[in-house]
Design goal:
The chain has about 80 residues and is of the alpha+beta class. It is built from 4 helices and 3 strands, in the order ααβββαα.
Length: about 80
Amino acid sequence: MHGFVNLCCAAALIHFGGDAIDAALILEETDPHAWVASPESVAWRDFRWRTFQIEEVRQEFFRCVGSCSFTDPLGDLETLGWL
């Protein structure tokens, strides 16, 4: 299973012309230190997406994600210090 942050960033990578190999690496990432989030952007290793780019991905490409729990993703974001 992959977290929705991994999935969203992999979708952003593909949406903006990235390749499937890098997208697979994003999906497989388990190191929380590989990610950096701020109000202006989210980054994974050498890749960075500005907030407006994530908004575009959400509107045009990555519309939803399913989860068995509403609170687990929120808890994960709290653990990362993003909430």
